[in-house]
Amino acid sequence: MSKSASTQPSAKPSSQSSGVAAPAFRPLYEQIKSLIMQSLAAGEWKPGEAIPSEFELATRYGVSQGTVRKAVDALAGEFILVRRQGKGTFVATHTAPAHQYRFLRMRADGEPADSARHHPVTTFIGLTRERADALAAAKLRLRQGQSVIKISRVLVFAGRPIILDEITLAQASFPGLTIEMLEASQGSIYSFLETTYGARMIRADEAIKAVAADRFAAKHLEVPVGTPLLSVDRVAYTYGDKPVEWRRGRCVTDGYSYINELA
Amino acid sequence: MSKSASTQPSAKPSSQSSGVAAPAFRPLYEQIKSLIMQSLAAGEWKPGEAIPSEFELATRYGVSQGTVRKAVDALAGEFILVRRQGKGTFVATHTAPAHQYRFLRMRADGEPADSARHHPVTTFIGLTRERADALAAAKLRLRQGQSVIKISRVLVFAGRPIILDEITLAQASFPGLTIEMLEASQGSIYSFLETTYGARMIRADEAIKAVAADRFAAKHLEVPVGTPLLSVDRVAYTYGDKPVEWRRGRCVTDGYSYINELA
DNA sequence: GAGTGGTCTAGACCACACC
DNA sequence: GTGTGGTCTAGACCACTCT
Fold first, then answer.
1. Which of A6, A177, A189, B167 is the 20 to 30 Å CA partner of A131?
2. What domain range is A190 assigned to?
């Protein structure tokens, strides 16, 4: 984008009167943000790696450093990039100890939200290959009947089983996945999927209900059948809002709570 | 702050070696942000009103418009201010229809998170004055035994009672509050407290558990005793992180879910 | 047209990390 | 010291709202 007479190199309104709601105007930094996202999605810079400096990116895209900065700021705000003063800007990763359990909201009661808490221990129960039912297909945007992988596991906090997860993944996205690989891996499942399959979880939606423990949950969580449990449904997304993982967690809330901050 | 020789008017590091972790450096825009917060807390600009333009504030504080902008951006990001292009920057309010139920996370299943959903109807059960027990005192940072107001109510969605709330407020902050005033008010309780007492809720922390319905909850939510319910504990804060409200909600999750977005 | 927020640029200097 | 991100400024112009 060469600087002609104007200071505004590109991004013309071009007020086209298409049938419905015209986007009207797209700021330059939004476009830069999209370009960076594309490079990220294409794997040009891998998780944990540094991306080029702001000045390099500014030259590359033909905009000022300030505009790149605004784009990077936005991505850092979404935890897609991480800035480190004096060092550079890095692709965020679930592998870093501090972000291992980024999406885990269960906390021991009385434990501050930001504390460097002790991490849970994972016990895998099983891994099966099935055909997607209507629910799983809808959540993962697959066709019903497509192959999926179902993983069952228990998360143990301080010696107590607290969370029972049933995780569903599209078979096509994670070929060759075995329970042995999961058992051999350290840390969170997102860390594993990231390093092994390059599947980066960007964000997730959750819907929470209260349910009574069924036989299966009661057995693995070591509580009586009928005990009220938190049921946490989650869909996790990668780049481009593509759903990758669908899970249902059952959580014991005796001594533990799901914590959330509202703003 | 006059522009002397340097471009950096104030905010000197002044690396004092006090006993513990020195703040080291405080950006100008952070200081401006604090000043704006002070004016907000002091009621200089009331909820719904416009604050001075960025240029006016820049002159007032002796900084550039860009620095004011950064401070205002931060406050807008926390929903403390609201920007409206072409019109001005306004003090956020719980009274506006779009933000009436800003902290309410229960949604009918299948309803998109951002939908202009139909609002709940509130039925007040009772209002009593009591002495703070240990729990309430801790949550509201009061001394045990200080006077508190306890409000019970039910939120009805589409004709069904879904949420039973028990709300605790410090008596001292809300003198003269009666159930008649609540019943006469329209919309959310935060909207009411804001317009009547000038108490603005800025943010809130929640801790969620699954519990079995007791007799009281079963009666008002029209479910059998023992039905699993979501128990949502909330502490809401005003300016200066002062806790103002402590509530415990019990929610029916048949057809409704607590929704949350993780990033 | 006037006023307000929104975008973009260019350049200076500060803070931090690594050599 | 060099390079990176972080802050601050000054000025130009765009987009939106109201009069």
1. A189
2. 97-258
